[in-house]
Write a structure and sequence with these properties.
The complex is a heterodimer of chains A (306) and B (294). With 306 residues, chain A is an alpha/beta fold. Chain A contains eleven helices and 13 strands. In chain A, the strands form three sheets. A six-stranded mixed beta sheet of chain A has the order 5-6-7-3-8-9, sandwiched between helices. A four-stranded antiparallel beta sheet of chain A has the order 11-12-10-13, sandwiched between helices. A three-stranded antiparallel beta sheet of chain A has the order 2-1-4, with helices on one face. Chain B has 294 residues and is mostly helical. The radius of gyration of chain B is 23 Å and the shape is globular. The chains are: A alpha/beta (306), B mainly alpha (294). At the A-B interface, helix 3 of A face helix 1 and helix 6 of B.
Chain lengths: 306, 294
């Protein structure tokens, strides 16, 4: 974890806490995002992801902690360097896409002389130039999502916050968005902070992840390093998967990661595969397959949030 | 925040406000109200509608409403102001627009996009206030121009222009008071309906309180003759009650009425109006500063 004053960190959060009444939704959250990262912020529903992001962006007050964006804790100044899409894209539906962007450009303090060019550039970039004069209420969800990206990119941000950006998109839209985010990071050098439920998307896109559960950061690090497990994983197929899962759960030397479609995935904590197989047979299970498995982000997520 | 940036967001809020159907409809209604009032008064002026009375010596006095109105170009413009303000045509739109521009942006979550920009929180309600004041001023210009275009050729250019102009200026100040009240309620409650109803009830209760005070004053003055030995004391109380009226919110919000009657403005009423505008805008900023934005 980098030092608070490290100038290379795009985002540093320390001790972030948010309560609603007596309920603590975000507990003492620490995380760091380095410049150039595509950081995946993961967590189950209700884990506190959106609340944490809203606190980081100053949309809601925090009960404790600090947030520094490019080393600056002043929210107004740091907002000049960020773009954000929080939850569903929202616009003034009775205005055209272009008019909505003009309003945002005024708020972003883009000089009047550069405004028109900046708007046309971002509209071109998200392939909305042809529909720019249409009222936003006539846009599909995918188009609104693209317009929201155009708005987020309008002021040439250095850090982009995306909260569940693939929500409601069709498979093609998801792939396009993933490629677009990749381009933003590699070609434009924009740091991306993305919260998502799509673990496969995050695994394909992000170089670092943080996993939040019950408002606390449970794991954070480089994706490749985190997926390298020093303990072997096995996919076990046996006569009675339900009983097998129950049996393994009771054993202190293995951890059940998931059980689906008759296959139980376990992590061998303190036993090797041959002895585990023998123990299962001795326990009365007819083991038909014992296949070494590769750890996925989904496994990591399930372990951390178990 | 630079002045140019603030002017920029005021411009954005003004463009947004004027793009609303309600804002455009409001200007049409205000123009229609002005035209209708002038035409109605002109018709009344030329009509023989009136009443007759018999005095104590048996003489019959006949008066027409037109004769009593004593219309001039300037006084007609005051009557159109009366239609705009007392009939609540203009002010209803001001309250509705203030409620929509705040509360509906909370519910639509579009306010979030403004907060995410590099602007201090205070500048957002301030820019909305400026935009709404520009709409109120434009609606007054529409009232003035449409009335003048019709009334001056018909009634001539004579009349109390000084008090007419002052009444229009006082109306704008009163409108700013209504904008401040509505915005405060809208930021605090985030409800469009509540933001429309609460200022209206506030104005209504304040006006009723004003009427009650006037009635009390009138009663005190009338009972003086029955208690001649208490006359001095009762007169002091009657004066105090009359002064109390000047401190009511309605006295500030309806300052235009004093101007329209050609009377000088009571400093208490001016102070009340300044207090309403100042306190509501300050409180709005304080509320929004600490508010979670969905």
């Amino acid at each position: 974890m980098s030092d608070d004053n490290d100038p290379v960190d795009a985002l540093v959060v320390r001790g972030l806490t948010r309560r609603y009444g007596k309920r603590v939704v975000v507990k003492n959250l620490d995380l760091s995002v380095k410049q150039g990262d595509i950081y995946g912020f993961l967590g189950p529903n209700g884990a506190g992801k959106t609340t944490a992001m809203r606190c980081m962006l100053g949309l809601i007050a925090r009960n404790g902690g600090t947030v520094k964006i490019f080393g600056d804790s002043n929210l107004v100044r740091s907002h000049a360097h960020i773009g954000a899409i929080i939850e569903n894209p929202v616009f003034h539906g009775w205005l055209s896409g272009k008019e909505n962007l003009r309003l945002s450009a005024s708020y972003a303090n883009i000089p009047r002389s550069e405004r028109k060019k900046a708007i046309e550039e971002v509209l071109e970039r998200v392939n909305l130039a042809e529909r720019a004069r249409d009222k936003v209420r006539s846009y599909s969800l995918g188009m609104k999502q693209r317009l929201a990206i155009a708005r987020a990119l309008l002021a040439k941000p250095k850090l982009l916050f995306l909260d569940e950006p693939t929500n409601g998109l069709d498979p093609r839209g998801v792939v396009e968005l993933r490629e677009f985010i990749g381009t933003l990071a590699t070609e434009d050098g924009i740091t991306v902070f993305i919260s998502s439920h799509q673990l496969s998307e995050v695994e394909a896109l992000c170089n670092r992840v943080g996993i939040i559960h019950h408002g606390e950061l449970r794991a954070e690090g480089n994706v490749a390093e985190m997926l390298m497990s020093d303990k072997p994983l096995l996919d076990v197929t046996a006569s009675d998967p339900g009983a097998l899962a129950a049996h393994c759960t009771e054993r202190p030397d293995v951890t059940v990661l998931k059980a689906a479609r008759g296959v139980v995935r376990v992590r061998l904590d303190d036993i090797d595969a041959a002895m585990f197989n023998a123990a299962l047979v001795q326990g009365g299970f007819e083991v038909s397959a014992l296949v070494p498995a590769t750890r996925s982000l989904e496994d990591l997520f399930l372990e951390v949030t178990a | 925040m630079s002045p140019a940036h603030f002017i920029g967001i005021c411009g954005a809020e003004t463009r947004k406000l004027f793009s609303r159907l309600t804002a455009r409809l409001g200007l049409v209604v205000v123009a229609f109200t002005a035209v209708f009032t002038v035409l109605f008064l002109s018709w009344l002026d030329g009509s023989q509608i009136g009443f007759s009375s018999v005095d104590g010596q048996g003489m019959v006095n006949e008066s027409t409403l037109g004769g009593m109105l004593d219309l001039t170009g300037a006084s007609t413009l005051i009557h159109t102001l009366w239609s705009r303000n007392v009939m609540f045509m203009g002010r209803l739109f001001i309250i509705a627009l203030a409620a929509l521009s705040v509360a509906s942006e909370f519910s639509a979550r579009t306010l979030r996009e403004d907060v995410l920009r590099p602007v201090p929180r205070w500048s957002i309600p301030a820019a909305k206030f400026v935009a709404l004041t520009i709409w109120a001023a434009l609606s007054l210009v529409v009232t003035f121009l449409f009335s003048a275009a019709l009334a001056l050729p018909i009634q001539g250019i004579g009349g109390p222009w000084g008090s007419t102009i002052l009444a229009y200026i006082a109306t704008l100040a009163g409108d700013m008071g209504f904008i401040g009240i509505t915005m405060l309620v809208a930021f605090a409650t985030r409800s469009v309906v509540g933001s429309i109803i609460v200022p209206f009830i506030f104005w209504l209760l304040s006006s009723i309180a004003g009427l009650v005070v006037l009635a009390a004053n009138s009663i005190l003055i009338n009972v003086i003759e029955f208690f001649p030995e208490q006359a001095a004391q009762l007169q002091i109380w009657a004066d105090r009650v009359a002064t109390l009226n000047l401190w009511l919110p309605s006295s500030g919000l309806e300052l235009w009425w004093t101007a329209a009657l050609g009377n000088s403005w009571a400093w208490q009423s001016v102070l009340v109006l300044v207090f309403i505008i100042g306190s509501t805008t300050t409180l709005t900023v304080v509320v929004f500063q600490n508010q979670d934005v969905p």
